[in-house]
Amino acid sequence: xxxxxxxxxxxxxxxxxxxxxxxxxxxxxxxxxxxxxxxxxxxxxxxxxxxxxxxxxxxxxxxxxxxxxxxxxxxxxxxxxxxxxxxxxxxxxxxxxxxxxxxxxxxxxxxxxxxxxxxxxxxxxxxxxxxxxxxxxxxxxxxxxxxxxxxxxxxxxxxxxxxxxxxxxxxxx
Amino acid sequence: xxxxxxxxxxxxxxxxxxxxxxxxxxxxxxxxxxxxxxxxxxxxxxxxxxxxxxxxxxxxxxxxxxxxxxxxxxxxxxxxxxxxxxxxxxxxxxxxxxxxxxxxxxxxxxxxxxxxxxxxxxxxxxxxxxxxxxxxxxxxxxxxxxxxxxxxxxxxxxxxxxxxxxxxxxxxxxxxxxxxxxxxxxxxxxxxxxxxxxxxxxxxxxxxxxxxxxxxxxxxxxxxxxxxxxxxxxxxxxxxxxxxxxxxxxxxxxxxxxxxxxxxxxxxxxxxxxxxxxxxxxxxxxxxxxxxxxxxxxxxxxxxxxxxxxxxxxxxxxxxxxxxxxxxxxxxxxxxxxxxxxxxxxxxxxxxxxxxxxxxxxxxxxxxxxxxxxxxxxxxxxxxxxxxxxxxxxxxxxxxxxxxxxxxxxxxxxxxxxxxxxxxxxxxxxxxxxxxxxxxxxxxxxxxxxxxxxxxxxxxxxxxxxxxxxxxxxxxxxxxxxxxxxxxxxxxxxxxxxxxxxxxxxxxxxxxxxxxxxxxxxxxxxxxxxxxxxxxxxxxxxxxxxxxxxxxxxxxxxxxxxxxxxxxxxxxxxxxxxxxxxxxxxxxxxxxxxxxxxxxxxxxxxxxxxxxxxxxxxxxxxxxxxxxxxxxxxxxxxxxxxxxxxxxxxxxxxxxxxxxxxxxxx
Lengths: 173, 666
What we know:
The complex is a heterodimer.
Chain A: H1 5-38, H2 44-63, H3 74-88, E1 92-97, E2 103-110, H4 113-119, H5 124-146, E3 150-156, E4 165-171
Antiparallel strand pairs in A: 1-2, 2-4, 3-4
Helix pairs in contact in A: 2-5
Chain B: H1 6-13, H2 17-21, E1 29-31, E2 34-36, E3 40-42, H3 58-70, E4 75-77, H4 104-116, E5 120-125, E6 139-141, E7 155-157, H5 160-180, E8 184-189, H6 194-199, H7 214-231, E9 238-245, H8 256-269, E10 273-278, H9 299-306, E11 313-315, H10 322-330, E12 336-339, H11 341-345, H12 349-355, H13 369-375, E13 408-412, H14 416-427, E14 431-435, H15 445-448, H16 456-472, E15 476-478, H17 485-491, E16 495-498, E17 502-504, E18 515-517, H18 518-522, E19 531-535, H19 539-550, E20 554-558, H20 570-582, E21 586-588, E22 591-596, E23 600-605, E24 610-614, E25 617-620, E26 623-625, H21 630-635, E27 639-642, H22 652-665
Parallel strand pairs in B: 3-4, 3-12, 4-5, 5-8, 6-7, 8-9, 9-10, 10-11, 11-12, 13-14, 13-16, 14-15, 16-27, 18-25, 19-20, 19-25, 20-21
Antiparallel strand pairs in B: 1-2, 17-26, 22-23, 23-24
Helix pairs in contact in B: 3-4, 4-5, 5-7, 7-8, 14-16, 14-22
């Protein structure tokens, strides 16, 4: 029976990474298209924030069916959702316990978005604020859905030259 | 006060076997000030049969009249009417409306149709809240809480003034119902509709007088009860449907104690009876599907009574059988029997109990295809009842289309479709003989009934019903008889119904003792190893996978459909996906078995990705139609019909509907 596991997995992995790159290019090409159509009155930051807001809302929708507050580790489950989402988007991301049980740190050791942003002429600040907007919106929607004071804040950002993106996800008492 | 036909029905019951067999179901009950001759209630359900702007149609009236006849003097509830002109409360495309006097003529006709069948007419107010806005594109609720299910519209928070207006709209719609001539008023506050949204901690985050603690959250419901009560006649009973257990613990919904407290508050506010329900549409726990055992929710009304509820209570929810309902009434668990899905499947179900014709009941199989249709803007239909939503068409019933040209009809196959075709053709006056190569009826379902999660109900319901109907119409049966082309050529029947089902087909090139059919696997006819791979990802394969997993096998299903169970209706498919996961069954969809080796198979996805899966035994569960007799009929110039799986392998519903329609047309 001819089956080469290594070959199958590596070809699948290559295809997966290709899909991730393609997805990011798609995003920035849509951004460029919106700016071209808007012409001189275009504000790239405004366009980016709106796009990330919509992405944030839709991301939250995909989390709702998996949100179960009756489980003690529900905050961790939400953090895991973020980790999974960003892994799929091509980032190297992990989570760490925060200062207390109500807090989790999300750490992006590597993220391909700034590189692609540069390729397509988007500023680094737009990249930081756009990403923040997406995460903030998702968390706001989750807070509304769960009736919990769920918050997220950015402590470090790769596009600002800080080596990693670090975000604190917590429930305000 | 006695309901209009009370004495007439009570006298009639004296002569009916069902009244003796189920003395509690067919005993009188007083709700508010109204005395009703029995304890049967058809619960409201939408049917999408009305116009999209809320006017009642003749189809809906005929649908309801059939159910009204079925309650045999009991309560028959029309579908809930939406109460607001903006239609934000409209949850279903064909939902009736009572927001304006222009709807009065249709509603009057509806009340008259129900009363025309000597039933007690019940009118329901139903603003669908966060599951509404179907037409408006936006729903409204106490707070703008995002939807868990993408199916539903975004929710807009109601202003304080809008809440007050909404209470008045309920009163206005109630007045319309009174004027239309209904005898009972009902308010719906279940499954995520507006009243339940106000009661719930998760959907009501208001900070005004309508939000906060339970008392404040109940204010909207209490105000509606009082306002409606003020506009209906003093002797008109008022019923409310409220949820006893929302099953929303995962989003911090109300506790059961809080919900039961709302029952006491509703009674205190003036309702005369409460219909007890369980679960919301966005709950993740099944409530009324077939995998939920019959009668398994009876502990809920029991608990409500123990909590101190004094007004009469009713409950539906998998309470299908009169025997079960009779006992529950006798035990004081419920006061009257409510049913909905069972009377979609058989509009006359309670009447048949009363007449002692239980073998004539088409039992609901709790598949929820009715709901699946409604959620997808399609008119009501029933998996098991081909006449559902065709009540306005007399020629849809075999007794109305007798043949002038009786034929000798051979039905080949005593499965679901064959039995349906046989009895309907016989009812029309044809001479029908049914052949089957097996010793007993059931066809494909003889295998399918082995699957867990109450799938045996599918077999019992269809086969027992079909056999009873055939026997009543003198259909001749020839079991252990395989019809051949020669037999057809020799005996030349006038018409042949080919209901020979489908065969499990072993793919070409598959050889080995460890390759067996679904029939052999599910009936334990061949030895199997621990690791089983099933080829096919439709319902038969899933049923077999679950049956084998229950026996401790490690099962993997591989199939070409893009998702497992594409042939199961969407309102039930999600349950099967959960069953597969719960039983450790892996499903590789959009895939084929590329190669079979020693102890494993190579699975290949549609995009070329390959991987090995352990396989001691391989079960083939893909089916192909068995229509071998077609040629014989064609060659001999005999009228023939190809039905059920013999036409295209499908689910039970296709077989029932095919068979029934074929019997009507021969």
